[in-house]
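To: structure subgroup
Subject: Chain for Friday's discussion

All,

I'm putting the inputs and outputs inline so they're searchable in the archive.
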Amino acid sequence: MATAPSAKLTPLLKDELDIVIPTIRNLDFLEMWRPFFEQYHLIIVQDGDPSKKIRVPDGFDYQLYNRNDVNRILGPKASCISFKDSACRCFGYLVSKKKYIFTIDDDCFVAKDPSGKEINALEQHIKNLLTPSTTHFFNTLYDPYREGADFVRGYPFSLREGAPTAVSHGLWLNIPDYDAPTQLVKPLERNTRYVDAVMTVPKGTLFPMCGMNLAFDRELIGPAMYFGLMGDGQPIGRYDDMWAGWCMKVICDHLGLGVKTGLPYIWHSKASNPFVNLKKEYKGIFWQEKAIPFFQSVSLPKECSSVEKCYLALAGEVKSKLGEVDPYFIKLADAMVTWLEAWNMINSPGEKPAMTSLPNATSKK
């Protein structure tokens, strides 16, 4: 006797998480992610020509924003949203009303673990975010909150409650996330190592955050997840996610929040052109040698008790210290302030600007 098909299980945080995708092309890659994404709401930020029609596969619940929408919603403050750069994704963070964000690039596909099982990257990110981080003391069995692990001998009991996790940073199989010089000298290199581990990035330690497989608690750290002023009209590109990562980590360390890295893996399918990348990265390769020591030494005032206060103070430090390196950083610091103003405008209680997409740019299941 035939049985009725079982109903789909409700995925974790279904009504509390948005998936943000920056793109310039049709989103056919979503077909591979359908089993994992179909029940979630997508925010798609279309980069480039707003008159170009972007096709989204049927069955997904999404909102599609283009540059016209950015300008309409933010007005003069739209200047802080990068154009012709994946940094445009942070507009999705801005307009989301959910507690959590997962962001992924459109050249990232479902990876498989060593047993051949498809990896539900989103589920792993959620597990990372919902368990504490060990920011103040390193556990040699990596994440002690994972099933089958615990705190090792000698780990202080007073620190075992951990810290709230603000960011979950995933990794990639196949195409590594290399800079242009490394791409040029290792054009055929592929990452085939699957390391079954999640670890907390220790307090006081910076890391190069990659935005193509990333999740965060928007309520905990959202105002600091600004991907900078990059791309068209700017002297630098491909440092958007790293800039956000340095700013975010300094603020997390100050406020006692945690950052995890490791699982989940995605399959990064397409290597970008190293010569194009070198043109975008050229100044950044020099500037990072000044920027990283700045972030390693910057100190936020004790009275900075919120992410917004921290970010405003950090913008002031960027202007005064890195502004000496190049005038670009003065412009970037001003954009950081504008971003914070836009965040408060969109997200302040009682403020409800018209944020719906153009009629032909919104689709529901």
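Points worth raising on Friday:
The radius of gyration is 20 Å.
Residues 1-6, 351-361 have pLDDT under 50 and may be disordered.

D.
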